[in-house]
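User: My instructor asked us to take a sequence, write out its structure as tokens, and then describe one feature of it. I'm not sure where to start. Here is the sequence I was given:
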Amino acid sequence: MDLLSRGKRDSHFASAAYLNLCIAAATVLPGVITGLLAWQFAFDGKRLRGLLLLHVVAAFIVAVLVIASWWVHRRTRQSELSFPGMSN
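Assistant: Let's start with the prediction itself. The structure tokens for your sequence are:
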């Protein structure tokens, strides 16, 4: 949706894409927390190895990227609202 809104000032697609990103950023933290709790209960806190360790590392990287992407979009939207007359 973000690509469909390129070049348009007040696009409904841009608003929908931002809302989608906000929801993804809000739900990524509970997802990480429940994943860690599941690991504690299923494996009694034992050290992860192999494919499970790779899965946990990838989940943390994705969580950081989603939150960073949301933060960048949020700052960009705030700066556009602060200076509505300026265009790129």
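For the description part of your assignment, you could build on this observation: Helices lie at 12-43, 51-82. Try explaining in your own words what that tells you about the chain.
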